[in-house]
Structures are given as C-alpha cells and as structure tokens.
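Protein in question passed on here:
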Amino acid sequence: MGNKIAILGAGSWATALAALLSKKGYPVMMWARSQEQVTQINNFQENTRYLPGVFLPPQLMASTNLEEVVSDCKTVIFGTPSHAFRKILQEVLPYVHKEAVFVNTAKGIEEDSLYRMSEVFMQEAGTQSLSRYAAISGPSHAEEVGQNLPTTVVVAAKEKIVAEQVQDIFMTDMFRVYTNPDLLGVELGGALKNIIALGTGISDGLGFGDNTKAALMTRGLAEITRLGIAMGANPLTFAGLAGVGDLIVTCTSVHSRNRRAGIEIGRGKSLQETLSGINMVVEGVRTTAGAHGLAQRYDVKMPITELTYEVLFKGLAPLTAVNKLMTRLKTHEVEEVALAAVNWTK
C-alpha cells in the first residue's frame, strides 16, 4: 500500500482538497458520479460546475469506478454530503485496504438516526475501525482554499497518531492543521453552525443589521455548546476552529450556501424554491431537523434551532420567529453554559 490518496466526491470542497494534496505531490484520484465531470477534470484540469477558475494539476485523475479509486490507498477522504455518507461508505468498504485511514469532511447529522458521521462509520465499519477514522472541520471555504489563501482547520480522531498522520498529510504553508482529541465536539460544532448560518441569512434577508447577526451568532454558539456538553463534548472545543471559527465564516461569508439559503427564505421564498435556486447541497437544512431531534433527546433548550426548524418545516413566518426569540422569558447569559462546563469537568 503506497501513498496514493482517494477522494470520494467531486463537489467544491472535495475538489479543493484534491488540488491541495495533488500540488503537495501526492498521487490523488477522485471519484465522481458524473462521467462529464471526470472527463472535464482529466482532460481540462478544471471542475467548472463546482469550483470554476481553480486549476487542477494534470497528475490529478478522476474516475467513476469506486474500486479503481480506492484500491491500494493509504488514505480515503470522504468529500460527499453527510446524507450520502452511509451509502458511499457501504459501497466502498469491500475495496478499501484494512489499514487505510478514513478522513471525513462532511459536516452534518444523519436525519433519521441522529447519528454523527463517526457513529455512522462505526456502525458500518465496526467499532474497532473507529481507530482509523478522523474528521476535518473549521473555517475553510473551498473557494478560498482553491485560491491558496491562508486557512486553518482542525482534525479530530480517537487515536492521536491518526490525527497527527492526517495533520501531516494536509499541512502546507497556506493550510495549517491543528489536532483535537474531542471527535464528538468537532463533529457537532461543524454541523450545528450551519443552522445558525441559516438564521443569520434569514436575518439578512429580512433587512436586519449587524446587531442582529452578532446576537444570533453569540446566542447560537451558546446553544451549540449547551447541547455539546450534554452529549459529552469538551466545552473548549466550541471556542476553537470547529466552533466559533467555523461559525463566524459560515454566518458572514458570501461563499456560505447556508447563509445564502437563509437570505432567500428571509426574502419570502419557500424552502423548495430556495434549494432549487442554489442547486447545491445546503447541509444546514437536514442538520436542523437532526439537531431538533437531539435537543429533544437530551432535553436541551435550543431556541434558535427550534425556531429555525419551525420556519423551514412548519411554515412559521420568519418575522414571527424573530418576535418569538425577542420576547422569550428573561434569563441569564453566562450562568447556564458556565454551570454546564463545570459539571463536565467533574
């Protein structure tokens, strides 16, 4: 087994990472569903649908054949949306070397099971296989990584040696990688911030200002942390790249699909109209449903998540949701999360 790297998926993030690793000198092969994309990547060194304007090294190759892509691979990177993770994993497992490391980049929660991606992986690949699993998260829009702009991310894994191995694979002078042992917290932070980005987008679509956005981001981080602590995550993780870092970039960036979707909903479009117009996966929609279920399971108050859920799936008017948030019963700011953090450390 050599140092060949497989990347499953040909969306914007998968393409940006493929370009990054290929430029580092790794032999990289991408898997895409579309033969048209494969031809474009192999013959014209560009993915015009998902990452236009980013040159792909000629040694980077793509294929629609999963077995061909993952055979003899030391590292298998999942760049598919979270809702497709289980199916692709099932298809690829028979062909993957037993010592290969799996790296997941999807930020989501499986809607029916409420599983994080590591839990899906463990269920399909076996409990022991989790020792070869890692997740990458953090403020990292594909458009900027593709342009080789300075970016920092975090990799989390159950095994420190695996996290450090993945860190070494991805690290460049423009792509800095930290490690974190809190796999649960890193996965939750990466997934749940998309819900808050939908909310800040709705706020922008309604014509509200920076005060509103800052309030949503701050209180959104509080409820993300609250759920994370209830599930057993380290509260400090949410003050890091997978928490506040990813939250900031997703809630404010022009590249954010979740924010863009929220803007359209705030302007009066239906969820279906919005998703059809964006024509790419908006992870926060399914994650909102999943987080709504987790909040109920762990009996955690998540008012922004709850009202975003009602706007997306129950027909609640965005302005009514804002009014409900602003007229909630008075409460304290710091004590709720601080007390939970103290309990976590006991």
